[in-house]
Amino acid sequence: AQSVTQLDSHVSVSEGTPVLLRCNYSSSYSPSLFWYVQHPNKGLQLLLKYTSAATLVKGINGFEAEFKKSETSFHLTKPSAHMSDAAEYFCVVSDGGGSYIPTFGRGTSLIVHP
Amino acid sequence: EAQVTQNPRYLITVTGKKLTVTCSQNMNHEYMSWYRQDPGLGLRQIYYSMNVEVTDKGDVPEGYKVSRKEKRNFPLILESPSPNQTSLYFCASSETGHGRGEQYFGPGTRLTVT
User: Fold this and answer.
1) Does the beta-carbon distance from B59 to A101 stay under 8 Å?
2) Do A100 and B50 touch (CB under 8 A)?
3) SS in 3 state form for B30-70?
4) What is the SS3 assignment for A95?
5) For a 10 Å CB count at each end of chain A, is N or C smaller?
6) Residues pairing with B94 in the sheet
C-alpha cells in the first residue's frame, strides 16, 4: 500500500526568502515520487520527479527535491521565492506494486508576500 | 502542440440528467485517467485506462463510467449525476502504462449538479 502526507496545508513566505514544502510518503516498493504545481484556474504541471536515479532532483523554475529513504521524505525546496510561485503544490507517490493508481497528497498552498 | 483537451470547461446540470465530459490527447499516450479534485482532499482517481479497451477502477469510481475505444479519447460519463458529484474534474495522460510516469493534465472541467 502507498500513501502520502503533505505536512502543511498552507505555507506563507516573503518574496526572496527560501521555500520548503514538506512531503512524507509510505510505500511497500521502490516508489516514484512527483511534485506538481497548480496555478489558479489551471491544470497541473509537473515540477520534478524521482524515479530511483539521483536522490537530489532538480526541476523547473529553480525547484528541487531530495529523496530521503531513511526518513521517507521528499521535501520540495527553492532558494528564493518569487511572486509567480504562489500556487497549490501536490506531492504524488506511485509505487507500481500491483496498483496503477498514483496517490496524491492533499496539497500545500504557497502564499508569497511582497 | 502536445496537449490534453477537455470539453466542456464548465457545466451546470440537474440531478439525473446524463452527461459526458470528453477528453482527448495528441501524444499517443497509452495511459489515461480521470481525477476529481475537491477542497482539502487533493486529487482522487476515478478511472484509468492502460490502453484501448482496457479500463479499471480508481479510488472513487461510484457513479461514473468510462470507455476507451480509441487511443486518443477517454470520455467520462455520468449517467445519473447527483449533487455530490459537483467537483473539478481533470483528465490526464501518460506515456508509460503503469502509472509511474509523468502525467499531462487537461485544463479541468468544473461541474455543478443542482
Assistant:
1) yes
2) yes
3) CEEEEEEEECCCEEEEEEEEEECCEEEECCCCCCCEECCCC
4) coil
5) C
6) B31
Taking the CB of residue B53, how many other CB atoms lie within 10 A of it?
10
Cα–Cα distance for residue pair B47/B35, rounded to 1 Å: 8
Question: What's the rounded Cα separation, in Å, for the pair B67 and B70?
Answer: 9
In terms of CA atoms, which chain B residue is nearest residue A48? Answer: B102
SS3 A37: strand
* Distance from the A79 Cα atom to the nearest Cα atom in chain B, whole angstroms: 25
Spatial neighbors of A81 by CB under 8 A, at least 6 apart, are: A13, A14, A15, A16, A17, A18, A19, A110, A112
Asked if residues A44 and B105 have their Cβ atoms less than 8 Å apart, the reply is yes
Is there a contact between A93 and A4 (Cβ–Cβ < 8 Å)?
A: yes
* Facing A96 at nearest CB: one of B90, B100, B106: B100
The C-alpha atoms of residue B3 and residue B112 are separated, in whole angstroms, by: 25
A-chain CB neighbours of B61 within 8 Å are none
DSSP A102: -
Q: What is the dihedral of CA B69, B71, B75, B76, to 10 degrees?
A: 100
**Each residue's pLDDT expressed in tens, for chain A with a length of 114 residues:** 789 999 999 999 999 999 999 999 998 888 889 999 999 888 899 999 998 778 899 999 999 999 999 999 999 999 999 999 999 999 999 876 666 788 999 999 999 999
